[in-house]
Specification:
alpha/beta; TIM Barrel; eight-stranded parallel β-barrel; 11 helices; 8 strands; globular; binds 1,3-dihydroxyacetonephosphate
Length: about 260
């Protein structure tokens, strides 16, 4: 399962609908020679169908930026896992730190969302964890990662070849222009892997989990990350918003 690294482009709420479609079209044209890496694009909710239509016939996958834990019902404004599958999504980001910050999402909600996503077929949750600056400064990172994983994933049944991606995004590195040192990411990923091993056993972790890094990845620093142990890919924000920059990033990674 782990041969190819995965790069997920999180476009957040940074592009208008027209810009979203325009960028997707440019990527479709420019990325024709890209191979050896899996790419997924996470546009805003209301662009999903159109972005999916543009990407038809390519290997680029569709990812949603959020999901609700119920399947159907009176939940105004929400979108369920099965609806995302219907819309063509193969991935969904869960519990991004921006949602934790602005929408008050907590790990109880993240747990419910992850469980609901695992309950439908062909949808992979990308569960975000990561410490804030204060936690890092006071040496609490390891515990924070352990605790977030426990809260998000404890008790989940992982069946067959169901995939789960854990995205390590140190909050203080997101959008800062400076990624953490690759060695620090490697260390954090090791903590994550050991915690997951404890929770699910090594076999399931090796077969069903991927661990990816996010936070100010760009063309200059990506190479330092991609060959790290326990790093299966990246969650990229800003550097995926320009077709040339994103293409260069992918080329750096696949070289
Ligand atoms: P940046 O790459 O812009 O720091 O964003 C990272 C991120 O939050 C991806 O989900």
């Amino acid at each position: 399962m782990k041969e190819e690294k995965i790069i997920i482009a999180n476009w957040k709420m940074k592009l208008s609908l027209a810009e979203t479609i325009n960028l997707t079209k440019k990527i479709k044209t420019k990325f024709k020679d890209v191979s050896g890496v899996e790419i997924a694009i996470a546009p805003n909710f209301i662009s999903l169908l159109e972005v999916g239509a543009v990407l038809k016939g390519t290997n680029i996958k569709l990812c949603a930026q959020d999901v609700f834990w119920e399947d159907l019902g009176a939940y105004t404004g929400e979108v369920s896992p099965s609806m995302l599958v219907e819309a063509g999504c193969q991935y969904v980001i869960i519990g991004h730190s921006e949602r934790r910050k602005f929408m008050m999402e907590n790990y109880e909600m993240i747990h419910r969302e992850a469980k609901a996503v695992l309950g439908v077929e062909n949808l992979t949750p990308v569960v975000c964890i990561g410490e804030n600056w204060d936690e890092r400064k006071t040496d609490r990172r390891d515990f924070v990662l352990y605790d977030q994983l426990q809260q998000a994933l404890s008790g989940l049944d992982i069946m067959g070849n169901q995939e789960i991606i854990v995205a390590y995004e140190p909050i203080w590195a997101i959008g800062s222009g400076t990624a953490i040192e690759p060695t620090e990411a490697e260390y954090a990923h090791k903590i994550i892997k050991l915690t997951l091993n404890d929770m699910f056993g090594m076999k399931i972790v090796n077969n069903n989990f991927k661990i990816i890094y996010g936070g100010s990845i760009n063309t200059k620093n990506a190479k330092g990350f991609i060959d790290l142990d326990n790093l299966d890919g990246m969650l990229v924000g800003g550097a995926s918003l320009d077709v040339d920059e994103f293409y260069k990033l992918i080329k750096v990674i696949t070289k």
